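User: Hey, quick favor. My workstation is busy. Could you predict this chain's structure for me?
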Amino acid sequence: MKWAIGIDVGGSQLKAVAVTKEGVVRQRVSRATNPAAAVAAEWIAVAHALIDELRAAQDGAPATIGLCAPGLVAADGRSIAHLPGKLAGLAGIEWGQALARGPVGPILNDAHAAILGEAWIGAACGQKHVVMLTLGTGVGGAVISDGRLLRGAIGRAGHIGHLSLDPEGMVSITGMPGAIETMIGDCTVVARTAGRFAHTTALVAAHLAGDAEATRVWLKSIRALSCAVGSCINLFDPGIVIIGGGMAQAGAALFEPLAAELARIEWRPQGQGVPVVPATLGSWAGAIGAAHHAFFSHESH
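Assistant: No problem, here it is.
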């Protein structure tokens, strides 16, 4: 049986999976990390521990190891070259050298990995045209067109969170004014609610409890999100839009007003809107997509 390890290096934990080439997830493991330390040795040590745990439980050695992380991937595919404003300790780690536990495939951006996972065995299985947004601390994104992951010249493709909706708005970590990330990301909820709420989960709870001001702020954020989704539909003409990340756990509180807004603004020349659905792989999408990429990277270029 051919199997691969997929590793997702996140801000607070590393997640790893053992996946067969047919897309069967055989095991999932995770360990917490200390993002404040931002020391390469810690990331590498935790990754080693996860690999050893998976290898001990599976039959034989993995055919390959895939890894994803936030940021822009270096041109040679061996490391993360640039992470604006966060996790600086991850930049420059040569993972092929660091993980002396098996062959390591090309490194992948975490949002790119997540969409590959969802297109392989998740919400977009069988789809060739996909847009994905991940809503959490920030807003990530990725695009698959004609069955291929869009990367761009230096790996920036799909950074939907930094799509500008307001030239006079708050500046994002990339320097973009009025980016969708600043309008709905958890990173700005304190500023958007004048200090009332520290996290979006509390904002949504207050909205659902009938707090008029919380409802105003939340629905304003959904309005912005709908404009970003509608713009992506016009740009990429996807067959499906996936919403992932922690904020997708809001369920109907997110998807129902988003659907109502899209019904007003989406270009629907044939009368049918593009389905907007929650991700199905949850926080494991990146690790699963990293394993897929390690197996099939030669087919995705």
